[in-house]
TrEMBL record:
Organism: Caproiciproducens galactitolivorans
Name of the protein in question: FGGY-family carbohydrate kinase
InterPro entries: ATPase_NBD (IPR043129), Carb_kinase_FGGY (IPR000577), Carb_kinase_FGGY_CS (IPR018483), FGGY_C (IPR018485), FGGY_Carb_Kinase (IPR050406), FGGY_N (IPR018484)
Keywords: Kinase, Transferase
Entries under PANTHER family matching the protein: SUGAR KINASE (PTHR43095), XYLULOSE KINASE (PTHR43095:SF5)
One Pfam family linked to the record: FGGY_C
Family to which the UniProt record says this protein belongs: Belongs to the FGGY kinase family.
Classification via CDD domains: ASKHA_NBD_FGGY_RrXK-like
Residue span, Carbohydrate kinase FGGY C-terminal domain: 261-454
One GO molecular-function entry: kinase activity
Length: 504
C-alpha cells in the first residue's frame, strides 16, 4: 500500500462528490451524496450550509475512509472545492445565521444591483470589472443588510462555500484569489488583501476572509472537525477553490488555449490565457495555476433544464425509473436520437432561470420558437439541448473576437453522459470536443491539488502527464451548416423579445 493518499471533496449545486487517490493519482475510493436546492420564492435559491455543505463533507469523508480501509493517518492532505458566487453569513463559531444565498441563479438582489449601478454610474463596470450581475457577492451582502439587518449585525464573516467549509475544518477564514474576484470590489487583488476603502456601504473589512492561493495549506484539521469527519487531527487542508476551477484542473486544462465546458446543473466555462483580457460580457481574471489567466463564463441552466424536462414532460419515464426500470435520462436520450439537427425548425431560448453570460440579464425568459403541430416532446427536448449549444457557441465567438485561439475543448459534468448532447455541441461549434478519462470531476481536481501541495508532485507539468482524454467527438459538418443558419435566428430572438420579457 502507498504511504500517502490524498482526498478531494467537492460540494455542488445538487450533489457532493469525494475521492481518495494514491500517489499515482489513481482513484482508490469514490463517494457521492445528493442534496436539494431550495427555491422558496421566485428568484430565491438557497442551501442550508450547515446541513448540506458541512454535513455532506463529514458524511463523504467518513464514507471514503470506510470504503477504502485506509487509516486516517495515511491521508496526507485534503483539497476542497464548492459552488462559487454564493454567500453565507456566520457568527464567531462559524454557525450560519441564515440560509446561504446561491450563485447567479439567485437574483433577489436586483434592487441592490440597480442601486449600485446608479450609485457608481458610468464607473460601475470599472469598479466591478464587468457589468454588475447576479453572480456578484457584494450585492448579496447589501441585500442581507437591507432585508436581514439583525443577521447583518451579528455577522462575524461573510463567506463563500469553500471558505465556510475550510473554516469548519481548520478554524481559519480564508479565500483563494480565484474566488475573491466574485467579491468585487471588496478585495484588492493586486495586493491580495481586503480593500478597506471599497468596503464602505457593504461591510466591515474585518468581516471578510483573508486572501491566499488555492493550493496553499490553510491549516490542519481541528479536533472537533476530526471527530465529525473521521480524519486525523492535524491533517493538512488546502485553502480550497471554486468547483469549476477544480473541475478544469481535473481534466488537464493547464495550458493557454485550453477550455473546459462544464455541462453540470448550469453550463460553466474556464478558458486559460496567457494574458488578461477585458470584456464585460464574460468574467476575465486570474486562475489557480500561477501566471495563468482565465476567461470564465456561466449560463444559468444546463442540467437543470434537462431535469425540468424529466419532471414535467418525461414524468412517465421518471416513474419507470422510480419503479426500478431504466434511468429516465438515458431513456430521454434514446427518445431524441432520430430528431434531425435543427429539430425541424424549433428553436429554444434556454433562459428558464434568467441568464448570466453573455446576456447578464436575470429577467431573461425561456422560449420555444417555431412550434407547429408536427412537433413532439422529443423535438422540444432536442431543441432545448441545441439552445444550450447555441449559447455555448456565443461564448466561443467572444474568445475569437478577443483573438484567443481554442486549442483543446474538454467537456465535463453529468451532461457528458448524453452522447446526443455532446454531438450537438461539437456540431454547433464545428470543433472536436473531448472528454476526460477520469470523470470524477472537481473532487478529482481537488485531490490532484492536494497531491501537489503535499509534495507528491513537484510541478504542474508533472501533473499534466497523468491527464489523458477518454474520447473525441468530431463534428458533423453537414449538421454544422444547419446550425449556422439556425444560430442567426437564435441570436436575434433575445434582442427581439427582451423588452417583452422584462414587461412580463
Amino acid at each position: 500500500m502507498n504511504s500517502q493518499f490524498f482526498m478531494g471533496i467537492d460540494v455542488g449545486t445538487n450533489e457532493t462528490k469525494g475521492v481518495l487517490i494514491d500517489a499515482d493519482c489513481k482513484v482508490v475510493a469514490f463517494q457521492s451524496k445528493t442534496h436539494d436546492i431550495e427555491n422558496p420564492r421566485p428568484n430565491f435559491f438557497e442551501h442550508d450550509a450547515e446541513k448540506i455543505w458541512w454535513g455532506d463533507v463529514c458524511a463523504v469523508s467518513r464514507a471514503l475512509l470506510a470504503k477504502s480501509g485506509i487509516p486516517p493517518a495515511k491521508v496526507a492532505c485534503l483539497g476542497i472545492s464548492a459552488l462559487g458566487c454564493d454567500c453565507v453569513p456566520v457568527d464567531e463559531n462559524c454557525t450560519p445565521l441564515c440560509k446561504a444565498i446561491l450563485y447567479g441563479i439567485d437574483s433577489r438582489s436586483h434592487k441592490e444591483m440597480d442601486y449600485l449601478n446608479e450609485y457608481y454610474g458610468e464607473d460601475a463596470e470599472a469598479v466591478f470589472g464587468h457589468p454588475i450581475c447576479s453572480s456578484d457577492i457584494a450585492p448579496k451582502i447589501l441585500w442581507i443588510k437591507n432585508n436581514l439587518f439583525e443577521v447583518y449585525t451579528k455577522t462575524y464573516k461573510f463567506l463563500t462555500a469553500s471558505s465556510y467549509i475550510t473554516a469548519k475544518l481548520t478554524g481559519r477564514y480564508c479565500i483563494d484569489k480565484y474566488l475573491a474576484e466574485d467579491f468585487a470590489p471588496l478585495y484588492d487583488l493586486k495586493t491580495n488583501s481586503v480593500d478597506e476603502k471599497m468596503c464602505g456601504m457593504f461591510c466591515k473589512p474585518s468581516q471578510l476572509a483573508e486572501v491566499m492561493k488555492a493550493t496553499e495549506i490553510a491549516g490542519g484539521v481541528t479536533a472537533q472537525a476530526a471527530a465529525e469527519t473521521g480524519l486525523q487531527e492535524g491533517t493538512s487542508v488546502l485553502v480550497g477553490t471554486g468547483d469549476s476551477g477544480a473541475e478544469a484542473i481535473s481534466t488537464g486544462v493547464f495550458q493557454p488555449g485550453d477550455i473546459m465546458v462544464q455541462l453540470g446543473s448550469s453550463c460553466y466555462f474556464v478558458y486559460l490565457a496567457d494574458k488578461l483580457i477585458h470584456d464585460s460580457r464574460v468574467w476575465p481574471g486570474t486562475f489557480i495555476i500561477p501566471d495563468t489567466y482565465s476567461v470564465c463564463a456561466g449560463t444559468n441552466t444546463a442540467g437543470t433544464l434537462t431535469k425540468w424536462f424529466r419532471d414535467n414532460l418525461y414524468f412517465d419515464l421518471a416513474a419507470v425509473q422510480a419503479a426500478g426500470g431504466e434511468n429516465a435520462f438515458a431513456a430521454m436520450v434514446k427518445d431524441i436520437e432520430a430528431i434531425p439537427a435543427g429539430s425541424d425548425g424549433l428553436i429554444t431560448l434556454p433562459y428558464f432561470a434568467g441568464e448570466r453570460t453573455p446576456l447578464n440579464d436575470p429577467f431573461a425568459k425561456g422560449m420555444f420558437f417555431g412550434l407547429n403541430l408536427s412537433h413532439t416532446r422529443s423535438h422540444l427536448y432536442k431543441s432545448a439541448l441545441e439552445g444550450i449549444g447555441y449559447s455555448i457557441a456565443q461564448h466561443f465567438d467572444i474568445l475569437e473576437e478577443n483573438h484567443l485561439p481554442v486549442k483543446k475543448i474538454m467537456a465535463v459534468g453529468g451532461g457528458t453522459q448524453n452522447r446526443v448532447w455532446l454531438q450537438v455541441v461539437a456540431d454547433i461549434l464545428g470543433k472536436t470536443v473531448c472528454t476526460s478519462s477520469i470523470t470524477f470531476g472537481a473532487s478529482y481536481g481537488d485531490a490532484l491539488m492536494a497531491a501537489l501541495a503535499a509534495g507528491a508532485y513537484q510541478s504542474w507539468g508533472e501533473l499534466e502527464k497523468v491527464m489523458k482524454p477518454a474520447m473525441e467527438i468530431k463534428p458533423n459538418m453537414e449538421n454544422h451548416a444547419v446550425y449556422q443558419k439556425n444560430r442567426k435566428i437564435f441570436d436575434g430572438l433575445y434582442a427581439a423579445t427582451k423588452d417583452l420579457m422584462h414587461t412580463l
